[in-house]
Design goal:
alpha/beta; globular; disulfide bond; zinc; 6 helices; secreted
Length: 232
């Protein structure tokens, strides 16, 4: 996000207003994400722990988010043990400006891993997407009450490749931590390589890690739920 400071009163104010208008028109012409309505920011939960696209990695936030989603999926698997495919359901209704990017991110992950699939729903979901303006940028978070969500920031998604941002944050859903010092070929390096990085796909190590997490991690979560149920 760029901030401007002026000393020359109304003349500079008019120049900045014209510049802002020009940038807004350019963004619209390029098809970049813009606010759909002011209502979208009103329903965003307050983050308890968060892992952002750009900044210091907060591994506690990464783990809390993954654990919340894993628990939600495990409860469904325990209740329906005949399910063949592990599915994580997401609701993107609160991020209408990013509908296309979110769909692309889900498709990227679905084509990259085999042990878990992402599926859109308009009803109850394992996690949700929100959009709005936030000086922290885009991030994955929990609300402190067992629910996970992804927040997509307007300004950051104009600066960085928007599908990469969505795919990166969705990687937290699947259990991957941030690694900002990594190369552009590593999806979870996030904004570390800079705005010129447009790689949207996880590398072989990231794909393997997600597949392992959703075989071993989910099995343990389901077993714990079953043990807890048998002791009631």
């Amino acid at each position: 996000m760029v901030s401007f400071r002026t000393r020359n009163g109304s003349k500079n104010s008019r120049r900045l207003a014209a510049l802002a208008l020009g940038l807004g028109l350019a963004s619209a012409a390029l098809g970049t994400a813009s606010p759909a309505s002011a209502e979208n920011t009103a329903a965003v939960p307050s983050p308890a722990t968060a892992a952002g696209y750009v900044g210091t990695a907060e591994n506690a936030g990464n783990k809390a988010f993954f654990d919340a989603v894993l628990k939600s999926v495990a409860e469904r698997q325990a209740a329906q043990p005949s399910l063949k495919v592990v599915t994580v359901y997401y609701n993107a209704s609160q991020a209408p400006s990013f509908r296309s990017q979110i769909s692309s991110a889900a498709s990227i992950w679905n084509s990259s891993v085999s042990n878990v699939k992402l599926q859109a729903t308009t009803g109850s979901a394992d996690f949700a997407y929100y959009e709005g303006n936030d000086p922290r940028g885009s991030y994955a978070s929990t609300n402190g009450h067992g629910s996970g969500y992804i927040f997509l920031d307007y300004a950051q998604n104009r600066q960085y490749d928007s599908i990469r941002v969505a795919a990166h944050e969705t990687g937290h859903v699947l259990g991957l931590p941030d690694h900002y010092s990594g190369p552009c070929s590593e999806l979870m390096s996030g904004g570390g390589p800079g705005p010129s990085c447009t790689n949207r796909y996880p590398n072989a190590t990231e794909r393997s890690r997600v597949n392992q997490l959703w075989v071993n991690g989910l099995a343990k979560a389901v077993a714990q739920l079953n043990r807890a149920g048998s002791t009631r």
